[in-house]
Amino acid sequence: MLEKTFENIKRLVVRHNQGHLLAFWEHLDAAQRRDLLAQIAGLDFSQVDDWVSNYVKNPVSAILPGDFGPAPCYSLEPPDGDMARKYAEARRLGEEMISAGKVAGFVVAGGQGTRLGFDGPKGDFPISPVKNKTLFRIFAETVAAVSKRYQTVCPWYIMTSPLNHSETQEVFRSNDYYGLDEGDVFIFQQGTLPNFSFDGKILLADKGKISCSPDGHGGSLKALYKSGAVADMTRRGVELISYWQVDNPLVNVFDPLFVGLHVLDEAEMSSKALIKAEPREKIGNFCLVDGKVTVIEYSDLPDELAEKRNPDGSLVFELGSIAIHIINRSFVERLNREGFSLPLHRAVKKIPHIDAEGRFFEPAEPNGIKLESFVFDALPLASKSIILETKRSEEFAPVKNSMGVDSAESAREMMVARAAAWLESAGVAVPRKQDGSADCLIEIAPSFALERDNVRAKVDQIPEIKAGDKLYLG
Prior knowledge:
By secondary structure, this protein is an alpha/beta fold. It is built from 14 helices and 21 strands. The protein folds into three domains: 42 residues, no CATH class; 346 residues, Spore Coat Polysaccharide Biosynthesis Protein SpsA, Chain A (Alpha-Beta Complex), CATH 3.90.550; 71 residues, no CATH class.
């Protein structure tokens, strides 16, 4: 039986110029052979041929739509009385949805902390300024605080990758799920895509193992469905998925205003946006193409459009994507029933693999192509999509680099700055340095305050703050 399967697979890979995948067949034991055949059988070779042609050998240049413009957006503050009433109604509706258990948290957490000099899942990276809480702990405490405030259970879905799945499970087990009920935390893996050499050959990680990489955050929409997470949501009565990425400790996971505007406007997938710090900031640009909200990557937007300004001096394309979304569960179901596929994006990377002689090769320079999909490419597939502006200082402190911009250091500074601003808005005096930054370390736990307005009710619990103090409010 194994030999017959081998012959069929051999004809298949040879026909598609991937015969080298079986080059070390004679070196494998029976279990390894079965596993390799299963890996190869799991590939769609008509797709593989397309990927090699369009992304590996002859990379397709990004084709900008012929006619597109800036996307509309709900502003931070309602501009008039009518909109103020809509915002109030949206907040009330959002709170109702959360209270009814119809909103779930969903974090994409497939990355390792390698770029941070950290050995382990990025979610286990310690980040808070006083207690050094990890990203996972901050999010878990947020889920718990929201559940308590709204007297409900907010389930939490966590997508890992093959790079860190087992480690992530162990992190949660060893931390007793951070006080959450294990049954309300659903951890699952995203899919993978094969890695390629520049000449279109699928690389081997070992003699019996195809080299693969996670399929990008766009893979979350398939993984939610395939893993059974969507079925679990259906059982619980969850209708909306609050999506964010693991490297942002400031995210407002359950924002009633965002939820409510999404529901009022009958959207299927919505986004939060920032006003870009400068024209070429390395975040995607929200645009409107044929009436559909679409994200155009910063690298694909021509300089003249990135720099283009309105009469008042603001950028025409000022809205930047920060990977915070509300997604309808029914939208995920519909896409998967219809067999959708998101466009792939090409990345030139250093990919360890074995060579033609079976020797392990650790490249010093980029040597191959990884493919991935991006979740924002699903936005044009939604029947309707809205955008809500948010404030960088309130909700976006990505932890991507070991030093400099978007680093652990800058994220901690932003966490302290937000905490100081929240306290000052409640009338609490915060010592300041000459440059205006807080002359102290402050950490506000989700259990103390989920948003700025919560602080006012607890002013009597806040001690006097002196220069150099470390203050934890929990």
